[in-house]
Each structure stands twice: as C-alpha cells, then as structure tokens.
Amino acid sequence: WYQRRVRKAVVSTQSTGGAVNPTACPAGNYCEEGAAEPTPCSAGHYCPAGSALPTPCPKNTYGEHTGLKSEDECTQCPQGKETFEEGSTSVDQCKSVSCSPGYYRDPQKGCQICPKGAFSTEENAASCTLCPKHQYNSVPGSVECMKCPDTAFTWSEGTDSFGGCIGPVIEACSGEDMTGSCDRYYDDNLNVTSTIRSVKVIKGEFELFNKTNHRGYLAKLTEQDGPTNVVDLEHVDVVRSFSPLLSDVFCSLDQGWKFRGSIRSTSKSGKACINWKRTPLADKATPNHYCQNPDGTNLADKPFCYISETETEECDIPSCIWNTDCFTGIGTQYRGKQATTEHGKNCNNWNSDFPHPHSYHSPEYNWAGVGDHKFCRNPSEEGKPWCYTTNVFWRWDYCSIPRCSRDSFDFYRF
C-alpha cells in the first residue's frame, strides 16, 4: 500500500505518456516540455514554481547555488561593483566599474548616462544634477551646462536645448529678402562687421544703428515687422550694431501695464491663458493669449492673464533690473524708486505744483512714468533722470542713479 501511494504521487507531476507536466513543476526546478522529470535550477538562475525554463539572475547579481526559487534569492553584487551580463554564478564576476563624469550609478542598472538638461562632474555620481536656471545642455552625458546669452533666461532648471533660452533674437542676411549668408544674433554686446541688406526680428524688439557701439541714427523693428530690407529702413541706410529692447518686452517695469512681450502664455501655476478678446478687458488688451496688464490696476505687481472668462492669475514674468536699479540711455525708461538728488535734496511729488509750478503732471507725460509719486524720472528727454525738489530755493536737480552696465547689473529679477 505504501509503495502504491508513492507511485501515485510521482505520477501526479506527469502528463499522459510519462512526460512531466510543466505547470506542476516544483519551485527550484524547471520542467522542459517532454522531460521525464524536473531538472534542478542551475547556478546563476532561479525557477519559480511552474517554470518551463530557468530564468537568469539579473545584471549586478549572482547565484552561487542551484535550486534558487525566486529573483530575491539572487545575491546583489557588493557596493561599487557590477556584472556585465545576466546569469552570473560567483561574486568573482562582480567587477569594479567606474562611472565616468556625465554618467550616474544606478544600484540596479549600473552606469547610466545623464539625460539632456542634466550633468554630473564626479565619477560614480549617485545622480545627475539638473542644469541651473539660465543654463542649458542639449547633449546626453554632459559634464557641464552652457550659459544662455546674457540677455536671455530660462523658466526653470533642466533646460535641454538652446531654444529654451528666452531672450531677444535677430537674423541678418547679406542679401535682400533674407537671402545670401545669414547669421542670428542673440545678445546686444556685438557689433556687425559684415554687410547687411535684410533683417528679421525672431524674438523681441530691436534698435538698429548705423554706427558701432549703438551710436548714430537708429531704426526700431519688432517681430510683427517681418523680413525687412535695410534700404527700406527710415533714417538708417547701413546697419553697424544692434541693441534689443528688454524693458516691458522680456521683463516688466512698473506694474507691467506697458508690458507687451510675447514670451509667456501660461499663468504662474502653469494654467493656459485664454485670448484676451474673450475677457472683460477685451477693449483694452491686445487680442492674444500672452500675459499682460492692460489696465495697469489688476494684480498690480505683475502682468497676469485670464485662465477662464472670469478667473485671473498672475504670471511669472521677471522684473527688469535695468531701468529700475540703474538707467539706460538718457533715462526716459527709468522706473526705479530713487527719490533724492545728487545734492541730497528730497524729490517732490510730480502731481504737486508747490513749491515749483510745472506742467509735467499732465497725462501727456505718462509715457515717462511720472504720476502720483516722487521718484526720479526724465520727461524732458534731456540729460538723465531728475526731479523737482521740495526745497523752495532749489527748483530741480539730477538724481544720483548709476548707469546700467552688464559688469555691474544683471538684466532680470525673478
């Protein structure tokens, strides 16, 4: 009777004809189709119950013993070592492999290349580092990031292409109608050395000068002007230097009520802006879906947009440092809060006629930033920012504001 029971138990793992039934194969063994009996799982492999074939231990693990039943029974290589293939049978097959800069070490997968927008500088780095704001890289396996042009910025870390740098771009060609040899300029620190016969603003707004170093007569071009031949420019018959207009194009002055840049079409939280023509401010706003502040009162600190026909949200447009902490040109665009003069006099409110009557508080000078405040401005378009003083014996005075230079001031405040 005992012998008969044992014989039945053995037969239960077999299908008809004497072959082993793979679905009934015990863990730690595998049962190939047509095999007469289970085969113990070989070293470097594991066999869950019902295995028809052994499964190799993953890379960076090994299996010294036969009969392993699950992947968890494969042994992990020591820290800092890895295998080059699956199915390793000994710790001797775990080799020390150094992950070069530009790579990082994954505990399970070994050396992995850093993706675009990230980098590593050390051997065996635990992870890659995202490119900081205002930098980028577009090549996997990088050991550093490239800096965006001085007048450009990025919205976040991890920018993976030069196209992610937000800033002014102008294209200039040696032939008319954008033909011949063409180059793109991304910064305002370059003079033009070749003959230019046509230009096109790709992003932003530019002033074009007929002399080097932003001197001489100028012409202004925007994205909306499209391709333009130099012979058609007013006052300028040759182009020798460029300068982008940053204020209220790539950053905002005041409350952004003159901000006109087409650089952001999502709110600060990432919600899509709707077209202004669908909003209560349709009669004041430019009909597009970019961040604006068309009436100069809503969300007073920043440009904003409508994310629905009734709901607004602020945008993360940077504030201008140039023309806020310092002035450019003769200071007509200065919108800072300096309120004392070079001789230590206090500035008077522009809306006041006492002790010095004047006409600069009329609406026609709003373009110069004068209003119900006492900050230095230049509505006279002469010299540099100035103000009327509160001193009855001192009518007006220039203000002690530094001139903007890229050596001393950044362009944007975030």
Summarize the structure.
The protein is mainly beta and 414 residues long.
Can you characterise this structure?
The protein has 414 residues and is mainly beta. The protein contains one helix and 27 strands. The strands form twelve sheets. The chain has a four-stranded antiparallel beta sheet with strand order 16-15-17-20, with no helix packed on it. Strand 3 and strand 4 form a beta hairpin. The protein starts with a helix and ends with a strand.
Strand order of the largest sheet: 16-15-17-20
Cα(first) to Cα(last) distance is 88 Å
What's the gyration radius in Å? Answer: 36 Å
The total of helices stands at 1
Beta strands, count: 27
Key features of this structure:
414 residues; mainly beta; disordered N terminus
Q: What's the structural blueprint in terms of helices and strands?
A:
Blueprint: H1 2-11, E1 29-30, E2 39-40, E3 45-46, E4 55-56, E5 61-62, E6 75-76, E7 81-82, E8 95-96, E9 103-106, E10 110-113, E11 118-119, E12 129-130, E13 135-136, E14 146-147, E15 169-175, E16 179-185, E17 198-203, E18 205-211, E19 215-222, E20 228-229, E21 241-244, E22 304-306, E23 312-314, E24 319-320, E25 386-388, E26 396-398, E27 412-413
Antiparallel strand pairs: 1-2, 3-4, 5-6, 7-8, 9-10, 11-12, 13-14, 15-16, 15-17, 17-20, 18-19, 18-21, 22-23, 24-27, 25-26
